[in-house]
Amino acid sequence: MNKKEECEIVKDLAVQYIEKSLNEGSRNFVKNHLETCENCRKYYKTIEDTVCNESEQDKMVKKQFKKVHKRINILKIILVVILIIILIAGLAIWYKEATFSNLVNKVSEKVEYMESLDNYKITVKTINKDFKKESNSWEFEETYYYKDGKLKNESNQSIFFYEDDSYDSIYVFHDLRQIEYRHSNYIKKRKGSAVGLFSYIKENYKPITSTIYSLAFSIREDRFNGIECYVIRFASKNSYRDIWVDKNTYITVREVNESYSHFYRESVFTFEENVVTDADVDSSILNSEKYDDYTKMEVNTEIPQEQVEIIDAINAQ
Ligand SMILES: [Zn+2]
Question: pTM for the complete prediction?
Answer without folding.
Answer: 0.71
